[in-house]
Design goal:
- The strands form 2 sheets. The protein has a 4-stranded antiparallel β-sheet with strand order 1-3-4-2.
- The chain folds into 2 domains: 60 residues, Multidrug-efflux Transporter Regulator, Chain: A, Domain 2, CATH 1.10.1660.10; 104 residues, Resolvase, N-terminal catalytic domain (Rossmann fold).
- By secondary structure, it is of the alpha/beta class.
- A hairpin with a 5-residue loop joins strand 3 and strand 4.
- Helix content is 49%, strand content 16%.
């Protein structure tokens, strides 16, 4: 069978893996592996039918670049008070238990306070760990710890760009849900306020 390689030379005797086999070895989803191939993060062999096969040598190369197997626990609250302290304690205990059951080593615990921003101390620390490739897992109590409106986008970016797996325990917590609803309202009000100010500036500029 004739194969077209995406600018890589296939050595004689090279073992080619099917997508599911390669994804399993790398510990990632098949779709993530496909994205890596499309963006050039991993080199692959494309057959005449358009199917990707992955050289074992590439898998070994990527494995040498993957983040460590350590996990970081990340929680975020809008403010520190007795109620939130109790909630933080419950969330950390649940995440520690999960990590212990899955035999995942926890290297750090990050508690962030306030709305999620790029300059939030805890979130900035998390990004530093990702850049240094010192973490292989991020364990969170709920997806919306990364914000009420863009959590899925942030998680997708982390997983697809770094290969780090984000594990959400989907904890049910009425107080947390109420806090996230409040945060959503604050974000929407802020957006509306900035939009209103922009409209006023345009009106003044055109008058």
């Amino acid at each position: 069978m004739k194969r077209e390689s995406n600018n890589m030379r296939i050595e004689p005797g090279e073992i080619l893996l099917k997508p599911r086999e390669a994804a399993r070895m790398l510990g990632i989803h098949v779709l993530t592996l496909w994205r890596w191939a499309k963006t050039g993060r991993i080199r692959a062999v494309r057959t005449p039918t358009g199917r990707y096969l992955y050289p074992l040598s590439e898998i070994k190369r990527i494995l040498g670049q993957l983040p460590s197997e350590n996990a970081v626990l990340y929680v975020r609250v809008l403010q520190r008070d007795p109620s939130s302290e109790a909630r933080i304690k419950r969330q950390l205990e649940a995440m520690r238990k999960y990590a212990e059951e899955k035999k995942i080593k926890v290297s750090q615990e990050i508690i962030d306070v306030g709305p999620l921003r790029s300059d939030s101390p805890g979130f900035r620390k998390l990004i530093e760990l990702l850049r240094a490739r010192k973490v292989g897992y991020i364990i969170i109590p709920r997806k919306d710890v990364f914000g009420p409106l863009c959590a899925d986008v942030i998680i997708s970016l982390i997983e697809n760009l770094t290969g780090v797996r984000v594990i959400s325990l989907n904890m049910s917590d009425p107080e947390l849900v109420q806090e996230r609803d409040l945060e959503t309202m604050e974000v929407l009000i802020s957006l509306l306020r900035s939009r209103r100010e922009e409209l006023i500036r345009r009106l003044l500029a055109s008058s």
